[in-house]
# Entry
Amino acid sequence: MDKLPGVDDWGRCGVMGIVNVTPDSFSDGGLWLDPGRAVAHGLRLAAQGADIVDVGGESTRPGAVRVTPEEETRRVLPVVRALVAAGVAVSVDTMRADVAEAAVDCGARIINDVSGGRADPRMASVVARTGVPFVVMHWRGQSAGMDELAEYEDVVAEAISEVAHQMAVVVSAGVDLDQLVVDPGLGFAKGREDDWALLARLDAWAALGRPVLVAASRKRFLGTLLADPATGEPRPARARDAATAAVSTLAAVQGAWAVRVHDVPGTADAVRVVAALRAAAG
Ligand code: PMM
# Structure
């Protein structure tokens, strides 16, 4: 089994930089579809302080239509290969076992599956066989219909119990518990209030006994919070990075293992501020 990097390696909450090799992601769709530009962007994120670069070839924005496996593979693999060759620690953001397996063969060190293994019945066996760390995110269904699935009595308790169930499913398929990272899945089958409730209670995820990844970057609940007071229009996605860095600070304070962000410099500073405060507090 591959060791999950963490606070012992970084001395703080980690930073996962995002490279979406897609035409349609909600905040950076189309910017990094060209493989050369995607690789250059990944290298830039690493130079700016990303500990891990997360490469994805399929948009999961609300309402997104799925890409074919061939197209996803074509987008992702050359970028993974080039970043690995440059010494970058790469995770692959995919719901498909074949894409995950091929990416690990190219040197990816983490499989980040927003469905936590639910979208592809073969995923758990690939995770078990490859032995790499695996992100189990809270997920209720594909992006095309996920907004209708955002019904909760107690979003924190229900998301944790649903992730605990999924952890048990993948462990029963042969995955080692120590391979798992958990993620509340902000924005996935969540309303705005649900995202805030989850962020307010990140400490509750400690009950699962696994590192927690938090991915708030540029998401809708931040756009709504920062809406133009005159028009009510949500703040555009690319103008949500200061708020994202604020969330990174709060996540690091609550003990997150890593935060997944588009804009690395603000968050790289934020997690260092939290580490310095922690050290000063003893
Ligand atoms: N969100 C997105 C994509 N991948 N992975 C994890 N683990 N957690 C998330 O919340 C998550 C993810 C969607 O955001 P993007 O389109 O900006 O990448």
Residues 155-172 form the longest helix (18 residues). Residues 18, 20, 25-27, 59-61, 93, 112, 114, 135, 137, 183, 185-186, 213, 215, 217, 260 surround pterin-6-yl-methyl-monophosphate (CB under 6 Å). The CA atoms of residues 111 and 134 lie 5 Å apart.
